[in-house]
Design goal:
The complex is a heterodimer of chains A (520) and B (102).
Chain A lengths: L4 H29 L3 H8 L10 H15 L5 E5 L8 E6 L11 E4 L13 H11 L5 H25 L16 H14 L1 H14 L1 H4 L2 H4 L5 H8 L17 H12 L3 E7 L7 E6 L11 E5 L5 E5 L4 H14 L5 H30 L10 H14 L1 H15 L7 H22 L2 H26 L4 H7 L2 H29 L2 H16 L1
Antiparallel strand pairs in A: 1-2, 1-4, 2-3, 4-5, 5-6, 6-7
Chain B lengths: L2 H4 L4 H31 L4 H25 L3 H26 L3
Helix pairs in contact in B: 2-3, 2-4
The chains are: A alpha+beta (520), B mainly alpha (102).
Amino acid sequence: MKNGFRQSMAWLHTWTGLLLGWLLFAIFVTGTSSYFQEEITAWMTPEVRSIPADAPTSFAAATRWLEREAPGASEWSVSSAGKRAAGLQLYWVNGPDAPADAPTDARLDGAGRKADARETRGGDFLYRFHYNLHYINWYWARWIVGIAAMAMLVAIFSGIVTHKKIIADFFLLRLGKGQRSWLDAHNVSSVLFLPFILMITYTGLVSLATHYMPWGIAANYADEQKFFDTTFPWPAPAEKAGPAPLTAVAPLVERAERTWGAGAGSVRILNPGDRTAQVIVSTAPDANMSVRPRSLTFDGVTGKLVSAHNPSGAATATEGTMIGLHAGRFASSVLRTLYFLSGLAGCIMVASGLILWTVKRRAKLADPDRPHFGFRLVEKLNIGAIAGLPFAMAIYFLANRLLPVEGAGRSDREIAAFFIAWGAVFVWAAARPSARAWVEALAAVAMSFALVPVVNAFTTDRSLVTSLIAGDWVFAGFDTAMLVIAAGFGWAASKVLRRSASPRTTSGKRPARSPSAEAA
Amino acid sequence: MSRAVEILHGAAWRDVAARALAAVPLNYAVTSALTMLIARILPGGAQQASVGATLLSFLIFAGVAMTAFAVRSVSWLWAGLIATGVAAGLADWCFIAWGGRL
């Protein structure tokens, strides 16, 4: 472009950032919450208490449960989301004799008892939303998210180029100075956390790489399925050959864990109780940095090792580690907190960038009291996105406690509450003057988050005080986090309130300065 | 009105549209052709090469997208991208025609 490389990059940064900023903010916020996905699910299913003991015992208990409840099945699958997950998830494929409406899944606690929890999608909903969105086809949703992520990558690279003083901005945060402060906030959050933000964007694209860029596979495989079959082997059960007792599962899990020096995360049993039975034990999702699991296949009658799958190769290791870095399942609690804080910095980067767009242009408006349509639209969308999504999340948590525990479609109603709350903020922002709408929406977010621990205390026997006394760090941590978030939004609301109460202080400075400029 | 909106009048609109078309759809086609080529060239077997090329594709796409808004001449941009895409596509076709696929 005419204006030179740096200006054209600045232009690109501004407009790709604005166009996809709202969606990116939603992806960043829900994605950041997913670092505590298991904890959110645990909090949203207060009925489940025990966390699985050691893998061999809990997998064996789950197998005994399946032997009782799904004896004729052609396949059982028992999986754990890792050490932090409450309970085990079971799936099975019923045999031909089972009625058509027979159940095919269940959740067990670590002792092998069926967990009778309220129906909820828990943290999984927020996690899926951050790349599948909701209410729309996942195939196109992933494309929309991918386009936003690619725009982000381009915005980051062009932002780096635009930057003249990247080192100086490391240490520069001037507060209470209007536009300058928003620019500083945008720069500090993005420059200080640049390695994280660059990593999370690129690895996010890599997580869904074959969805966006299937041509690397197409170059070598006429049939895509062949690639996936070699990369992710998933044997089907053989033809049944007559009954034979299933070997004990616990020793196989123990042996697998000894072989890997890492925890087991899932056990898949093909044709249980048949002569052709096979037991496939795979590594846990939090056992390694790479997300690609290793697995051992055992004969289901004799317990002998049949085969081992160990994904190797430089590209696979790189890809698996990149996705592992993105999801952070391997992270200890300290690293997990750092992940969460870095994610928050990403949210602040996107939000401050969006706000900066309006702050920068407000000063140049011909008539600040009646801004043009585009300006007002961005302002309203900013409120709906930046205050609306946190509000929706708080309402999602509140709905989990306040909706009747029994009843079909409960999890869908929780999700409906989430989107109704989000939509309400957009409507509110459109109906009210922007400055007022900001204060009111931020205050509503603060209040709804503050309500979460209160409602929890009244609707369950696991209040913040009880959890603290019992040393239940998941519940105590969740409730405390709600209060901290509430305080943060309350502080933001009071800042905006003070600013809009004296709107002439910032614009009042300019006329004072311009006469002197004219005089000079 | 902001300066960024002002520069989008008349010829500037066409300039931005031509760059955006080059930066997104044309870029995707060229990046796809290059990714296929890399997947045929990288060592370590078909599966590893395919994965490796796919990992690199996002870097190529981002680089081309930035270039589209950085170079001076829009016509050279289009010519360069089309030439690259056609050359890579021809090489892909030769590799597959003679080397076959799994």
